[in-house]
# Entry
Amino acid sequence: MTRRVPRKLKRTGKFWIFCEGSTEKKYFNSLRIIERVKIHIVPKEAGVSRADQILQKAMSFHYNNFMIDGDTYDHKRDRIACVFDKDDNNTDEIFKWIRENKIDSLILGYSNPSFEYWFLCHFGFFSSSSLDQNEVYRLVKEKMGVDPKKDHKLYERTMMNLDEAIKNSKKIKKIHEKNGIEILSRNSTPVTLVYYLIEIIKHYQ
# Structure
């Protein structure tokens, strides 16, 4: 699902990141401030509780050009990303929706079991298939020394280990692929594709 990052992006635009939780919002807001990248962070709205609804909103934004934060999407220069986790209730329906709607134009920052696994990759290679959301959360709190759900400097606290995180994220993805496991599925535990979005953002600098 992920594509090769272009070597050069001649014209810089904005990133529109549609995400599920407050942790994701805090992380990308911290990144936006530190790296001075043009990012609009679009958290889920009240009443939106499923990842497929977030994906649908992103697609609607792409095709209908409605305004967010007083700004509109530039089809030639901007990029749209959806950052979402495994959903125990409707994961299969989400991936079916992705396939049926052919949303290759979106950057999919999928994480399994949770977005916090991206943080964990900054501190080593964790490949156990028994990792669940609670265990990942516990390990991240231990490694970071802060509660990732409450801290507002998440990118700033982890940026020194960014190369390590990208390396470990790619490594676990390759292991799943070698074992014939579909990345965009509930079976790819653990995994995170957030690294791909970060690589693209870094190329926009």
Q: What stands out?
A: The two ends are 24 Å apart (CA to CA). Strands lie at 15-19, 39-43, 79-85, 107-112, 191-192.
